[in-house]
Amino acid sequence: GDSVTQMEGPVTLSEEAFLTINCTYTATGYPSLFWYVQYPGEGLQLLLKATKADDKGSNKGFEATYRKETTSFHLEKGSVQVSDSAVYFCALTSLSGTYKYIFGTGTRLKVLA
Amino acid sequence: ETGVTQSPTHLIKTRGQQVTLRCSSQSGHNTVSWYQQALGQGPQFIFQYYREEENGRGNFPPRFSGLQFPNYSSELNVNALELDDSALYLCASSSAEGSTDTQYFGPGTRLTVL
Question: Do B33 and A43 touch (CB under 8 A)?
Answer without folding.
Answer: no
